[in-house]
Amino acid sequence: MVAAAALVLSGCLQNPNASGGGGAGGGGAGGFLDSGTADGDKVVTILGAFGGDEEKNFNASLADFEESSGIKIQYTGDQDFTTTIKQKVSAGDSPDIGLFPQPGGLLEFAAQKKVWPIDTYLDYDKLQSTLLPGFLDAGRYKGRVYGAPMRNAVKSIVWYPKAAYEKGGYNTAPSTIQQLQTDVADKIAAKGITPWCIGWGSDQATGWVGTDWVEELMLRMWGPDVYDQWTSHRIPFNDPRVVKALDEAAKFNKDPKMVLGGTKGVLNTKFGDAMTPAFSNPPKCMLHRQGNFATTFYPKNVQADLDNQVGIYVFPRFEGGYNGQAILGGGDLAGLFNGTDPDAKKVMDFITSDKFGAPWAKAGGWLSPHKTFDVNNYPNETTKKIADIANKASVLRFDGSDLMPKAVGSGTFWTEMVKWESGQSSQQTADNIEASWPKS
Q1: Transmembrane stretches, by residue range (predicted)?
Q2: Which of 71, 75, 146, 255 has a C-alpha 20 to 30 A away from that of 164?
Q3: What share of the chain in percent tops pLDDT 90?
């Protein structure tokens, strides 16, 4: 996970070219640097973080476009994307396009005038009209947007073992978090089953699951505006509202009657194994709040029969909080380094549109960030339901720790949450993280 270091950088960003960023040969308008391959050479280079099957499915999704446009796309996957992209940009060897798994690096390049605002080469209003509400804000720096999403991830999902859950007669559409606790979790507990399946274990990254819980609750209790103030440090991390969100998260994560194995179970269970006890007969736990990627960790027999094995519903709103249905998510943001190349602009227009991704969607493991994407491309009803949850959301907000400075987002926020789960108070946890926030 990458820090949004650009959020604390100073400097004024100029408009590179109000009429569209300049065509081929337009050369660094407004102080922006030309990067990437030669303009108009029908070759476009892309650097991203995904490889393996994802790379294969990405390339498959580009095949028809390459054939019809005559543009050859050269994708390179690099698991150390964050380091590599910085090295390449610093050396003057930028790709034409970068696919950023977190917004921080993109915003840092925006502050350095290394990446082009999307309004210089895309139809901003058209894009805004089809995307999930709020998604473009993840790439916004000083009022302008520098990246457009090409993939979506939805975190605000509650999973349950379908047969056992339905046999128990539990509510399959709780409207509030309070109802989820009283009408579902308490009733599950009354039958001698621990309600929540939660695991935070992730080696050096242990704690990130806990940050997601706080982010979900900050968004639902206080709404997207306060959430934005929190992630950008316009309010301190130890604001009383953050402490209340931590206290609310404790009701799920720290109550031994609510979570399997209590606090030790949470910390000692790998996040990918958290749901496995739900598939025992009888289940040892029933509820799992995790992103759409959770299915890749479920037992093979469950994955092979997903629609019959699991049920889902949206992690609901908080009664007395934000009235709309908010979604915590993530994804990959495409940023253009070579703003004077018409070929690179055409590729950006395609990969950030609702026409991109059908082969990837059919293969599984990919969600479009567009409400207008044809959901019939998704391989099962579970994925279609996840897309429907996202499409009906009032607002989407990017994972908060990915928006914070690295020292916090993938540093003290993780480590202090582990201390919190081990018994540290919400107030102390918030105070410690606030004290760690970079001063410049």
Answers
A1: none
A2: 255
A3: 88
What average pLDDT score do residues 199-209 get? 96
Distance of CA 240 to the CA centre of its chain: 26
Beta-strand relationship, 43-48 and 72-77: parallel
Token couple for 284: 């040892």
Bond into 359 cis (ω within 30): no
Q: Could you give the C-alpha distances from 300 to 157, 194, 278, in angstroms and in order? A: 20, 24, 14
DSSP code of 259?
B
**Nearest partner of 119 among 197, 19, 196, judged by Cα:** 19
Integer Cα distance of 371 and 182 in angstroms:
33
Rounded Cα gap, residues 97 and 94, in angstroms:
8
Task: Please report which confidence band the pLDDT of residue 309 belongs to, taking 50, 70 and 90 as the band edges.
Answer: very high
Residue 353's region, left for phi above 0, alpha for psi from -120 to 50, else beta, is beta
Backbone angles phi, psi at 401, to 5 degrees: -65, -25
Mean pLDDT across the chain:
91
Report which DSSP code applies to 71.
P
Find the distance separating the first CA and the last CA of the chain, reported in whole Å: 20
How far are the Cα atoms of 74, 314, 389 from residue 208, in angstroms, in the given order? 33, 20, 23
**What pLDDT is attached to residue 35?**
59
pLDDT at 34: 53
Please indicate whether residue 280 or residue 24 has the higher confidence score (pLDDT).
280
Provide mean pLDDT across the span 185-194.
98
Average pLDDT over residues 165-186: 97
The answer to whether 191 touches 282, Cβ cutoff 8 Å, is no
Rounded alpha-carbon distances, angstroms, from residue 22 to 32, 34, 66, 136, 139: 11, 11, 23, 23, 21
Residue 435: strand, helix, or coil:
helix
Q: Tokens representing 302?
A: 């469950």
The confidence score (pLDDT) of residue 144 equals 97
Structure token digits, residue 204 = 């050096």
Task: Report pTM.
Answer: 0.88
Task: Output the DSSP codes for 14-40.
Answer: PPS-TTTS--TT--SGGGPPP-SS-TT
Pairing outcome for strands 97-100 and 326-336: antiparallel
Task: Look at the block and give the residue holding tokens 């908060």.
Answer: 400
